[in-house]
Amino acid sequence: MITPHPITSAARGSALFLATTLAGLAGVAQAQDNSLASDAASDSVITTEQKLSDEAAAEPRRAPDGYRKGAERRGVYFFGNLGIAAGGDRLATVQVNEILGDETDEVSIRAGDGVHLLLGAGMFVPRIPLSFQFGLGVHYNGISSFDDSAGFGYAPLEAGAFYHLGRHRLGGGLMLALSPELDLTDTNDGRVDYEEAFGAWFQYEFMWNFMSVGLRLTALEFEPESVSGFTDLEVDDLPDPDGSFAALTLSFPF
Length: 254
Description:
By secondary structure, this protein is an alpha+beta fold. The protein is built from 2 helices and 12 strands; from the N terminus they run ααββββββββββββ. The strands form 2 sheets. An 8-stranded antiparallel beta barrel has the order 1-4-5-6-7-9-10-12. A two-stranded antiparallel sheet has the order 2-3.
């Protein structure tokens, strides 16, 4: 019978113990490395989220601009503009009867007074807060009484540019007044036609998301072209009326 050498058995036991110890230490080191990697990844995520949050907080909020929102959705924006205008030279006077009594008042109709309505579209210049727009509408002022009435109107065709700065919108352009006409309905049924006229306009707006209010100034002058319904009145007898006006405006971009 062979008996194991006591030194060989002890050596094997020592080697086994050493291998087990090294394996345990390696496992602990690997666990520590995994923990450190996990902590680093977590810190990286937190740092990235914090950076994005800080950048969002530092970035200024874009002011409400319905024109720009419409352009971002479709490439172009559309708008409707309503103005209450006053100004210009007197074109005619109408006798207006009072509701009570037999007294009458004279009410004048002026070339710049009335309602200025415009519908149109525009687009922005890339990377610049500048927009160009075009519009077509109607400008009209009318007065009526029991016996007499008068009305003056034309169709404005406009083109212009606006600079957008926060909530503010500032611009100007040119206007062509199409088919300007004065109608007088009384015993004569007179009418005065004016030549198409060019004008210039300037407009400021304060904007919200869905609307804006503003002030508009327009410079315009008419020249009589023909007269009908008046036996004692010729074109040369009529002056060139000033149709300039100032208007409070309400705009709806979409």
